[in-house]
């Protein structure tokens, strides 16, 4: 078994006494104090997350002539400079190889941010259709730190001197001394927030500078997972993977059917005919549903759980899973569990948490 990789911030986590765990081949902090405290802090103030384990792929070239458009579901050629866009890489059967965010840095310069274990397969997938241009895995050189929470705009102004008012899913360049940053108005928590990119050698400097602000606490994977679950954001490898397609996942809006892309034929053949649909549910108690639990209704199995946990916002168990398309209407009563242990609940709509600050204009903060 290969040794887990460490992010540039590994030493910082150890110094703060973080509970470290193995995550997709990386040694990462699960929590520093407690998952619940870090979750609440992010919802109310500002939390800092180490996301240096994510993958970064650079593409430089002519988007229209290179063939790269065929590799993904989003339209790259009509993106504005300094904008970001969410989409998917699919296989021929429309299974999700990965979800990602693309950043257009200039007319011929793009950054693709992908999941931690996907760099190799995504680069190979892109190369299948690439006719020209330069494609590079720059994950080793790039560090990524996420500042999330209602106070994050004030914090980033005071600690990094970043005063630009960014719209949702846009980004800008910034520098602190000789450290170059790319700061995007994006995130995975449902709160106002920023994803900060820098070279790996500068990660500790940026991390410490932000944490010098008393309004900020470091947060681990536990809080991050619960925050994204409350928003209904899917996790690759759990809620979406190569065995699911974007229509089953309820994410049709992130597919541009005006263009051609790998997996399009399979999606069009199955459009409107998905046998299962990613659905949300909440339980009638504080007990947490777990991945792999059965979802039953009227005495029969109708699906299975892909993500679950206790929501401090709703004070009950919540989760997502795939449910038969004939049984996924909000209000449908269900039982969730394994063996004789069953939790009662009902299908509901997303998001679970509707008061997130992520779309609020920065100038209102």
Structural features, described:
This protein is an alpha+beta fold and 365 residues long. It has 3 domains: 5-54 and 140-231, 2-Layer Sandwich (Gyrase A, domain 2), CATH 3.30.1360.120; 55-137, Alpha-Beta Plaits (2-Layer Sandwich); 275-348, Elongation Factor Tu (Ef-tu), domain 3 (Beta Barrel). Helix content is 18%, strand content 35%. It contains 8 helices and 20 strands. The strands form 4 sheets. Strands 11-12-13-10-4-14 form a 6-stranded mixed β-sheet, with helices on both faces. A 6-stranded antiparallel beta barrel has the order 15-18-17-16-19-20. Helix 2 packs across helix 7 (221-231). The N and C termini lie far apart (47 Å). 42% of the residues are buried.
Mean pLDDT: 95
- Helix fraction? 10-25%
- Tell the overall outline: globular
Return Rg in Å: 21 Å
Low-confidence regions = none
Q: What structural class do the secondary elements suggest?
A: alpha+beta
CATH class of the largest domain: Alpha Beta
Task: Let me know the largest β-sheet.
Answer: 6 strands, mixed
Which architecture of the largest domain does the CATH hierarchy give at level 2?
A: 2-Layer Sandwich
Assembly state: single chain
CATH topology of the largest domain: Gyrase A, domain 2
Q: How many separate structural domains?
A: 3
Order of helical and strand elements: EHEEHEEHEEEHEEHEEEHEHHEEEEEE
Task: Please report the number of helical segments.
Answer: 8
Q: What is the CATH homology-level superfamily of the largest domain?
A: Probable tRNA modification gtpase trme, domain 1
